[in-house]
């Protein structure tokens, strides 16, 4: 069963975040991941949206998603992201 990783991002430094964006695609491919949604615009139909960016990733299963998140390749990208943004990650499935 597929698993999805939903990410809400608040960007503080666009240059640093751009470096993160360059690393992420290569980190998800070995785990069978793909981008479903990346970016903007987001319009709240109910409730409020207070973030700069929305990302939705799809993986073949929950374990692949967790393996990606905890991988060395993504750890490097995560460290860069943390210097220019904050994010909330959610796994579904």
Description:
The structure is a single chain. With 93 residues, the protein is of the alpha+beta class. The chain is built from three helices and four strands. 39% of the residues lie in helices and 32% in strands. The longest helix is centred in the first third of the chain and has 15 residues, at 14-28. It is globular. A four-stranded antiparallel β-sheet has the order 2-3-1-4.
Summarize the model shown.
The protein is 39% helix and 32% strand. The chain contains 3 helices and 4 strands, in the order βαββααβ. Helix 1 runs antiparallel to helix 3 (72-84).
Defining traits:
alpha+beta, four-stranded antiparallel beta sheet, single chain, 93 residues, 4 strands, 32% strand
Outline the secondary-structure elements.
Blueprint: E1 3-11, H1 14-28, E2 34-39, E3 53-59, H2 62-69, H3 72-84, E4 85-92
Antiparallel strand pairs: 1-3, 1-4, 2-3
Whole-number radius of gyration?
Answer: 13 Å
Biggest sheet descriptor: 4 strands, antiparallel
Write down how many β-strands occur, each being a DSSP E stretch of 2 or more residues. 4
The amount of helix comes to: 25-40%
What is the mean pLDDT? 96
In whole angstroms, how far apart are the ends?
A: 7 Å
